[in-house]
Amino acid sequence: MKDHLGRPLVAVTGIGIVTPLAWGREANWSAVKAGTSGISRIRRFPVDKLRTTIAGTVELPEETAGGEIVSSPVRVERMAAAAVEEALAQAALGAEGAFPGPLMVGMPPVEYEWPQRFDLARRANGNGSYRAAIEVATGREDLYETFLFGGVGERLAARFGTTGAPIALTTACATGASAIQMAVESIQRGESDAAIALGADGSVQPEAVIRFSLLSALTARNEEPTKASRPFEKTRDGFVMSEGAAALVLESLEHATKRGATVLGILSGCGERADNFHRTRSNPDGSAIIRAMRNAIDDAGLQPGDIGYVNAHGTGTPENDKMETLGMRAVFGDAPPPISSNKSMIGHTLSAAGAIEAAFSLLTIRDQVLPPTINHNEPDPAITLDVVPNVAREVSGLRHVLSNSFGFGGQNVCLVVSAAP
């Protein structure tokens, strides 16, 4: 039950997923296999003066009933809790709020949003300065507990009874994959028998949408939201912001086997590589992307030819899809495996993306079905990859999947998930 480096094999025994498509693993996976889009017009705040008016949003029950719109950290915590609960139920581990391992939480940086800032300015008699806001915020435990960066992780750790201090981290668009990597490594080092890896994001709020628009990162294809996200396609012009959460229950294979757990797959390889070329763009030579992919495959003890499918980062920006193609060709040569992008259906879930896509990669192996890249109407002649266009594809004998996560700021993490032995 060891890998090629003598480390404990890391098994996945539980999966939980929340996306704009659905709350729940199987409902999400069914929608993804069917090529369903979860992108729609933003309804939770006014968008009439925004360049981009669409997103993949996850509405909470009280919001759908016409109640108050909650802040991003509250949304993150609610989606994260739902994903962890589903994963724990499948794993049949952590009963009665006692989980035998740590919690790794990948989530966005948390900061006051406009409603809170406006409220503080009103309390300061219209003075919107930082100093005035700090003075009137003194003693506001509600703000402190909601927006403190580590607060979400602490409350989730208390709720699920994880051991040790929870680790809350953010590595831009690679965050969810980073959380999985940290959980895997804690088991490989023998520090724990099990861990919960979680990625969650609820950043569809006015300031975040405007910031990404100013970076020219978002598509403004507002007229037909379901057709807006088009990774690898010739007319792609930016990504669609989205939100969601995914959780994996990870255990050493020995621990899972001893307790009779059903093993859903193996997290067999993790690879990372950073570059400091630009805030949003990769180095044109693709070196960090290429190295992250190779590191993950090497870490799994595999050769590139062993990878049967790649779950793409596939954002739909002209730059990302070009660079991912470059990386695929460098790593796999003239015969790369099929690659497709879940983001064509659910949008870019930012801090949650790496975890959601790893979860979908495990389900890809389970059902031997490659999810499609929808909205692929006009192929880009510069992207010579099999992107599984528009319709899911049944396969057989698929054992190893590479899941790519390439973040802003040159933060790149790739994972290899494999079939259970």
UniProtKB/TrEMBL annotation:
<dbReference type="GO" id="GO:0004315">
    <property type="term" value="F:3-oxoacyl-[acyl-carrier-protein] synthase activity"/>
</dbReference>
<dbReference type="GO" id="GO:0006633">
    <property type="term" value="P:fatty acid biosynthetic process"/>
</dbReference>
<feature type="domain" description="Ketosynthase family 3 (KS3)">
    <location>
        <begin position="7"/>
        <end position="419"/>
    </location>
</feature>
<dbReference type="InterPro" id="IPR014030">
    <property type="entry name" value="Ketoacyl_synth_N"/>
</dbReference>
<comment type="similarity">
    <text>Belongs to the thiolase-like superfamily. Beta-ketoacyl-ACP synthases family.</text>
</comment>
<protein>
    <submittedName>
        <fullName>Beta-ketoacyl-ACP synthase</fullName>
    </submittedName>
</protein>
<dbReference type="InterPro" id="IPR016039">
    <property type="entry name" value="Thiolase-like"/>
</dbReference>
<keyword id="KW-0808">Transferase</keyword>
<dbReference type="GO" id="GO:0005829">
    <property type="term" value="C:cytosol"/>
</dbReference>
<dbReference type="InterPro" id="IPR020841">
    <property type="entry name" value="PKS_Beta-ketoAc_synthase_dom"/>
</dbReference>
<dbReference type="InterPro" id="IPR000794">
    <property type="entry name" value="Beta-ketoacyl_synthase"/>
</dbReference>
<comment type="pathway">
    <text>Lipid metabolism; fatty acid biosynthesis.</text>
</comment>
<dbReference type="Pfam" id="PF00109">
    <property type="entry name" value="ketoacyl-synt"/>
</dbReference>
<dbReference type="Pfam" id="PF02801">
    <property type="entry name" value="Ketoacyl-synt_C"/>
</dbReference>
<dbReference type="InterPro" id="IPR014031">
    <property type="entry name" value="Ketoacyl_synth_C"/>
</dbReference>
